[in-house]
Amino acid sequence: MTSLIGPAISDTGMTGSDLLRELLPVCETEVERHMKMTKDWHPHDYVPWDDGRNFAALGGVDWDPEQSQLSDVAKAAMITNLLTEDNLPSYHRVIAENFSLDDAWGFWVGRWTAEEMRHSTVMRDYLVVTRGVDPVELEETRMAHMTSGFNPLPEDDGQRDHSFDMLFAVSYVSFQELATRVSHRNTGKACGDPIADRMLQRVAADENLHMLFYRNVVAGALDLVPDQAMCAIYSIVSNFQMPGATMPNFRRNAVLIAKGGIYDLPQHLSEVVMPVLRKWRIFERDDFGPLGEMYREKLADYLEEMNVKVEKFERARERALEREAKKSRAGA
32: which of 93, 254, 294, 323 is 20 to 30 A away, CA to CA? Predict the structure, then answer.
């Protein structure tokens, strides 16, 4: 798959700089739309500060599991979502390296980064003040996760034209921002706390606006270089990983999150992948050349495979729920 990416994009005669320049009007329009729609908010307004108290280093009491009011599912989701937000330097680096720091592109890179920073700030303050999770473990895991970083772009086989990595980066965040919105929104509900729910509704609203920016930039790229954009979209969808995939204990937490209905494969397909693809009219477009058609067919095949996996997942979940129900009835 990746061996076709580099030569295919290079053959267009357009460079990555050319593409950024051609997409600048789209970027300017999207920045203007975003600034009209976004609402400024302050993290301190979403934290129940009266619940806070000192830890042992300042004469108080250190964290104990009994202090947390969160379920195991809510803990796993909050930790995973927060550590995902914490890794902002990695995401900023990818966006900054593949966009431009000039003109509207540069403004967006800075504005997006500043808005994203609020998310980790408010979530950490909430968890530490309410003692929802172990703050020592949280900090140790943050250090490990940020040190390793995260790169969403597909592996390079030595043939890819990196001047066009922008297409892969912007395609990735189109899906990832929506995925994060879904995860935050469902995590808020799982916490059983109206303050956490309200906080994560606010974070999810930001993620939705960010998704709109990136999704609309990809739409512009599809009009300019449809085959090359289709190539990037297929590569990202078929290799997609959540940005927390490299954090410690991610697999364990992901299982809890999926079992808890916060984010699972069916949601990924029905609430993230398919809505974005429909918005881009991927399977209705008639402007693809042979290369784009090939990648569209590969995408269709991959989606069929995903549907099969979703069906297996849902059957397995039904069986698990039935077993739990039987155990519950037996225990009663």
Answer: 93
